[in-house]
Amino acid sequence: MSSTISSSLAEQYVVLGNVAWSTYEALVEQTENPRGRMVYDNGDLEIMSPSINHEQVKTLIGRMIEMYTWKRRVKIRSAASTTFKLSKRKKGFEADESYYVQNASSMMGVDQVDLKIHPPPDIAVKVDISRSSILKMNVFAGLGVPEVWRYRGERITIEVLEGKKYVAAESSLALPGFPIGLASELIELRGELDENELLDRFMAGLD
């Protein structure tokens, strides 16, 4: 089993190779000890331990999505960092945040997600402040996540799945009116303003 380690003030990553699917499933089910968010792709396992900076950004993005859908009366079902995995494809991931929008109604009452019968989330949020995780993007695509909102230290970008690859989009397919530019500007002010003040400004921008 091989490994590489990358660390910064933003996130810490451990990447392991030649990890059996059964080992990954055992780690997913482990509840006694804390662990980071995991992504698995056919033997490669990445474990990310987030920093407070990472968590602040992903939480702000998530709260803005939730407040936008509440304001616009858009049906939504939050999945947060749920583990999504599919054994026949040997892929699994935990997003920073995830949401069902187009499929919100069909996921009502579902307490245990099974990708053999349920769709993947319509939106996955991915924050990469220290570096970009190509592995996770490959897994998102392999499991059919239609749309990924990415933050890589500067602004939110949206990528939509076309075939087997993601391409940049100007707006969200799930939430076409969402003000990506405003959200990005406010996230950059997180070191200066209280989170509630940031969200007040976001909501004011929706009027």
Q: What are the salient characteristics of this protein?
A:
6-stranded mixed β-sheet, 207 residues, 28% helix, 5 helices
Topology record:
Layout: E1 3-7, E2 11-16, H1 21-29, E3 37-41, E4 44-50, H2 52-72, E5 77-78, E6 83-86, E7 91-94, E8 97-100, E9 123-127, H3 134-142, E10 147-151, E11 156-162, E12 165-169, H4 180-187, H5 195-204
Parallel strand pairs: 9-10
Antiparallel strand pairs: 1-2, 2-4, 3-4, 3-7, 5-8, 6-7, 8-9, 10-11, 11-12
Helix pairs in contact: 2-5, 4-5
Biggest sheet character: 6 strands, antiparallel
Low confidence ranges: 1-8
What share of residues are in beta strands?
A: 25-35%
Instruction: Report the total helices.
Output: 5
The arrangement of helices and strands along the chain is EEHEEHEEEEEHEEEHH
In which range does the helix fraction lie? 25-40%
3D shape: globular
Distance between the termini: 54 Å
Radius of gyration: 17 Å
Number of strands: 12
Q: Give me the side-by-side strand order of the main sheet.
A: 1-2-4-3-7-6
